[in-house]
């Protein structure tokens, strides 16, 4: 009945990343009640920190009590009503997922596909938006299944021109790349805590523009999810402090500390650290025959998708990942969906975007391939 | 930018309760990936521990990545399709909430009301079930807004006779009272971690019968929530280990440790401890003029709702709760909904169901009323 020992891991997959001891220590603090003024002060700190990282003045910027995928659902089900049209860009698993979530909210989904490993075509997105008079346009900023960073501005402009609402998936970008929701004109965005913030999974930082909240207030039908209804959440996370559900107190302690670490470093230095680590990784991997999937202009620094050399395919890519985990304590990710079996996804996120993490992985891979 | 100090609190409200240091320490362990075999072993431990506490052999018994209110939504949206009829017992806030969630899932809700502070009338529930041919019957086992423990057997029998599916809210009962989902014939149940399990909030332990899973498989329409779709969750929490969302790893470490503590104590001893603490509390409060809201036969040991003596109303009940928090570091709960301002809800849950917690509260109240 004693607890199993937790093996030490270097988490270089697509998330979670390793959590800093300071964040773990913060989570170990005794609980406060979810309506305790001392806890609500911490919540206010978190909201302010998230606003800075998202690049927004949105009042309703909060940690949703769900994971990133639940954050996706929250953004889409609040803005969509049955029969609404939605234009969704699909260049990987998470774009696909958006379509599925939007369909389940009763939307007519117009998908715009791009080859996995490439960004969405901005002209195609603009054409689809002009054609279908959508309520919502949605796409992924940092596609975790391919390692592509999607430029936001042009699609955002087309969205605004059509009078639609823009939903942006920032799960893997928040805390790794600078975001500018207000400048871009994003109406609803969601993220995860277990990627570039290096906190445990379990919360979805999210932000809703005033315009988005007006849309929610003007709905003809109630939001299908009571739990994720942002007008109810606003009553707790706003100034009224009306009980809705019990917030995940310990996880919010951890997020507060994670955000404090980001602020201490500064977002510019943090982005630079991510870019340098990715450069070092791809250089080292190239010597071993791994080739990046994504054109340099669109590569995410925090997540590198790499095609595998013949030597890896001989051993078997899953077998080699298993060896890295068992013998070296290093986790890397395989391909998802259409890319399963053909590539690896290597995350250098948050605390792990450091040369020593890169070198530890390169040394292990070199050894295994020798 | 340094972290605010967390004041020490004795959490005697309706939840969260104080978390044991062993649970906090477990959450402080380094992260594993959500597909790491070492993590999946812990998940299996948690599933087995939850099965024992729920009193079920249900294969799909799991910690949902959401809080108790999200667990409510998960149970209802999986079993209900638009146009289905649902009979819901309402004797407090959480029964009300079930109606709202079921309506948002498109159900025709037939509510059976009971006075707050009393249990549902079993004959009325049976009559409503016989009348409306419901798909789902739902009620709350331990109503956190009133402190009533609802007997399950008779309503469960009427549900089964009508061929309906029974959803049971066990948020405040799991880990405080013995549960017997299989003997009772419950098809879907959900709970919280921050009540009698004395873990932080953020997960909803839940269980779905094989019969419930067959119903989900036979749906004509997709479950409206992708995030809470149990057939997708079964692919991760079952043997296939298909990625769905990233499980809240640290919270699951904590839950595993919380369940271990329950097993070490044994559920019978734990129930006895809760009953003794509640007895001591009500005896002591009676001397100060507080009277229990609920008839002895239906009182929850883990949560006592008490009517307030004139002395408290003179000071103001919210003001007195504020003084208890600020001067004594003790949190108790006020009334919710129709009972706001008229009573207190005092939780002696999990780790806090101990005579020393009772005495600390009684001493503080006595002092404040002197």
What does this structure look like?
The structure is a homodimer of 370-residue chains. Chain A folds into two domains: 10-15 and 266-369, Aspartate Aminotransferase, domain 1, CATH 3.90.1150; 21-263, 3-Layer(aba) Sandwich (Aspartate Aminotransferase, domain 2). Helices cover 43% and strands 16% of the residues of chain A. In chain A, α1 packs antiparallel against α10 (249-265) and α11 (267-287) runs parallel beside α14. By secondary structure, the first copy, chain A, is an alpha/beta fold. The termini of chain A are far apart. The radius of gyration of chain A is 21 Å and the shape is globular. The interface between A and B is large, with 75 and 75 residues.
Radius of gyration of chain A: 21 Å
Within CATH, the superfamily of the largest domain in chain A carries the name Type I PLP-dependent aspartate aminotransferase-like (Major domain)
The portion of residues forming beta strands of chain A comes to: 15-25%
Largest sheet of chain A: 7 strands, mixed
Beta strands of chain A, count: 14
Helices of chain A, by number, come to: 14
- Poorly predicted ranges of chain A: none
- Which two protein chains have the largest interface (Cβ within 8 Å of the partner's Cβ), and how many residues from each? A-B, 75 and 75 residues
Multimerization status:
homodimer
Sheet with most strands: strand arrangement of chain A: 2-10-9-8-5-3-4
Average pLDDT reading of chain A: 97
Output the structural class of chain A. Answer: alpha/beta
What is the CATH C-level name of the largest domain in chain A?
A: Alpha Beta
């Amino acid at each position: 009945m004693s607890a199993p020992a937790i093996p030490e891991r270097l988490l270089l997959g697509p998330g979670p990343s390793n959590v800093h001891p300071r964040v773990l220590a913060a989570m170990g603090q005794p609980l406060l009640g979810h309506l305790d003024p001392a806890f609500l002060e911490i919540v206010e700190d978190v909201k302010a920190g998230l606003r800075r990282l998202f690049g927004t003045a949105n009042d309703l910027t909060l940690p949703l009590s769900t994971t990133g995928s639940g954050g996706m659902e929250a953004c889409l089900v609040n803005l969509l009503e049955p029969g609404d049209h939605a234009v969704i860009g699909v260049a990987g698993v998470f774009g696909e997922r958006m379509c599925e979530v939007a369909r389940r909210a009763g939307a007519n989904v117009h998908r715009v596909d791009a080859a996995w490993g490439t960004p969405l075509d901005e002209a195609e997105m603009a054409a689809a938006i002009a054609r279908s008079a959508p309520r919502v346009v949605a796409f992924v900023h940092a596609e975790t299944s391919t390692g592509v960073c999607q430029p936001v501005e042009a699609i955002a402009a087309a969205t605004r021109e059509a009078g639609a609402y823009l939903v942006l998936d920032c799960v893997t970008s928040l805390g790794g790349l600078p975001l500018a929701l207000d400048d871009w004109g994003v109406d609803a965005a969601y993220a995860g805590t277990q990627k570039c913030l290096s906190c445990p999974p379990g919360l979805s930082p999210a932000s809703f523009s005033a315009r988005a909240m007006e849309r929610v207030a003007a709905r003809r039908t109630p939001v299908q999810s009571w739990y994720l209804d942002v007008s109810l959440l606003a009553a707790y996370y706003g100034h009224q402090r009306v009980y809705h559900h019990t917030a995940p107190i310990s996880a919010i302690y951890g997020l507060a500390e994670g955000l404090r670490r980001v602020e201490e470093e500064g977002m510019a230095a943090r982005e630079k650290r991510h870019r340098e680590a990715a450069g070092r990784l791809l250089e080292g991997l190239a010597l071993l025959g791994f080739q990046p999937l994504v054109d340099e202009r669109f590569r995410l620094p925090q997540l590198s998708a790499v095609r595998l050399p013949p030597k890896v395919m001989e051993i078997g890519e899953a077998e080699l990942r298993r060896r890295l985990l068992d013998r070296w304590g290093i986790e890397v990710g395989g391909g998802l969906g259409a890319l399963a079996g053909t590539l690896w996804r290597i995350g250098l996120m948050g605390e792990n975007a450091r040369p020593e993490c890169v070198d530890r992985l390169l040394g292990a891979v070199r050894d295994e391939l020798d």
